[in-house]
Amino acid sequence: MTGWEQLTSTALVGTDRRPYPGDLLEAAAVEVVRRRAGRRAGETGRLERAPEEEREAVGARAAERLVRILSGEHERLLPEWLAAAAATGRRVPAYALPDLLDRGRRDRSIRVHLGVLAGRRGRWLAGLNPAWDYLLEEPTGETWELGGAADRRAHLSTLRAADPAGARRLLESSWERETPDDRAGFVEVLAEGLSMEDEPFLEQALDDRRREVRQAAANLLTRLPDSRVSRRMAERVRACVTIRRESGGGEVIAVEAPTVCDKAMERDGVRQKPPRGIGERAWWLQQIIARAPLALWDRPPAALLAMRIPDWDAEVKAAWVRAAVLQRNPEWARAMFGWDPIADLLESLPPAEQQELAARFVHNHDLDSQLIMVLGGVSSLWGEGLATAVLRKIVKVAATQPWNLGELVKLAGEHIDPALYELAEDFSPAEPIQQVAALLRFRADMYKELPL
After folding, report:
1. What is the pLDDT along the chain (452 residues), one digit of tens a residue?
2. CA dist 309 to 129, 197, 250, 273, Å?
3. Sign, Cα dihedral of 275, 305, 220, 378
4. What pairs with residue 441 in β-bridges?
5. Whether the Cβ atoms of residue 18 and residue 46 lie closer than 8 Å to each other
6. What is the DSSP string of 372-400?
7. Whether 118 contacts 150, CB under 8 Å
8. 374: buried, middle or exposed (CB in 10 Å: 19+, 13-18, 0-12)?
9. Would you put residue 78 in left (φ > 0), alpha (ψ -120 to 50) or beta?
10. Torsion angle of alpha carbons 48, 50, 52, 54, nearest 10°?
11. How many CB atoms lie within 10 A of CB 131?
């Protein structure tokens, strides 16, 4: 530790009611906390002692590894360490809080577990420093009635998993009192256990004042093929798309893109203004096709992909990709991945199939940004099949383009199941492979230090 960190640690250890080494050190330590927390020297008002902790801290070895990660050693593993530590029900040690809170200020992705891991002292510090007050919005385990927005969302998620109808009724009971930002987050929670019983509530949410709420509701209604939104989108697609037989016997998809985006379309989730580089009609066409039930096409996706589309071909197929993602349709996701292998499509498939498709892609595709994105889209730890495919790719590329391996080596070390570190160690003596093995062993040791 630096002298600065030692003084901060001393101040925080003092909140455990342990004896200070002296009045002078106590005063210095308190001043350090003031400064790290944004308090100015000489500022009036006594600095209150931090409250007693309710949770036990992680063990010494786990805490030491956290400090190493925060100091830059495999720092991309910080989210994984935090998630694993949160699963134990423990908290981080007090002396790590200032650096961890600073990191959370810069990196939103690590905040999800900090409300619990930072403990009562973390929230005490967050109340002193405006730069750390984001922590006060993160879940802490409080109930629906007493918690903040994040706590209430976490409570709703837990209830939704156990009792979908009960969670919806709870949300309906307080809906009018919720802030617009909170309403958008609460609607997204209903994705768990979504059913037609949710349709009346979500249909009403389409009239919300906040666009994010309307969009979240429309996205969920798109996943219900019998919803009123889905039926209205189907009618819009029928009005501009027809499948007809050509003189030669084949089928062709004829498309006439919409010429206007009216208020009814906007209410159902169609956004009027296109992104840069896309024309209005193309944008509206993509959205209505993406939100219409895929069963509307009455043909397997492979057959549709083989048909000729004289006009708007790219737009229709891009819409099918979006439809497979929005509606989480495995058959369509599988087919569209073959046409356009994007990571989002993998989310609709079971973990084992995700890994099988990714392994095949690694085998057949050169190392580029698309391969990295596909691998990043695999939702579970990589098992032996995908791990072996990636290790083979590393060995192959190391012989011809070793300078191009940096991100793939890191990704492999961070996503292969750490229990497979011996597989990597024995796979090849090549330096990039041994780098992967070392990172896997680091993660395996990390989990051993954080028992449930």
Report:
1. 444 445 445 455 544 433 333 344 334 444 555 565 555 444 555 667 788 888 899 999 999 999 999 999 999 999 999 999 999 999 999 999 999 999 999 999 899 889 889 999 998 999 888 999 998 888 776 667 666 777 888 889 989 999 999 999 999 999 998 888 889 999 999 999 999 999 999 999 999 989 999 999 999 999 999 999 999 999 999 999 999 988 777 899 999 999 999 999 999 999 999 999 999 999 999 999 999 999 999 999 999 999 999 999 999 999 999 999 999 999 999 999 999 999 999 999 999 999 999 999 999 999 999 999 999 999 999 999 999 999 999 999 999 999 999 999 999 999 999 999 999 999 999 999 999 999 999 999 999 999 75
2. 59, 38, 12, 25
3. negative
4. none
5. no
6. HHHHHT--S-B-HHHHHHHHHHHHHHHHH
7. no
8. buried
9. alpha
10. 140
11. 14
Give yes or no for a contact between 234 and 202, defined as CB atoms under 8 angstroms apart.
Answer: no
DSSP annotation string for 237-292 = HHHHEEEEE-TTS-EEEEE---S---HHHHHTT--SSPPTTS-HHHHHHHHHHHHS
CA–CA separation, 395 vs 388, rounded Å? Answer: 11
Residue of 210, 200, 154, 157 whose CA lies nearest to 179: 210
H or E stretch at 12: helix 3-14
- pTM across the whole model: 0.83
Going by their DSSP bridges, the two strands 241-245 and 251-255 should be labelled as antiparallel
DSSP 3-state assignment of 190?
coil
**Whole-Å CA distances, 72 to 36, 109, 129:** 20, 17, 24
Residue 98 CA to residue 107 CA, distance in Å, equals 14
End-to-end CA separation in angstroms for the chain:
28
Strand partners, 253: 243
Backbone dihedral angles phi then psi of residue 311, each to the nearest 5 degrees: -125, 145
345 token code pair? 């499509």
CA atoms within 13 A on the CB side of 321: 17
DSSP string, 354-368: HHHHHHHHHHHS-SS
Q: Identity (one letter) of the amino acid at 69?
A: I
No. of helices (H) and no. of strands (E), the chain? 24, 2
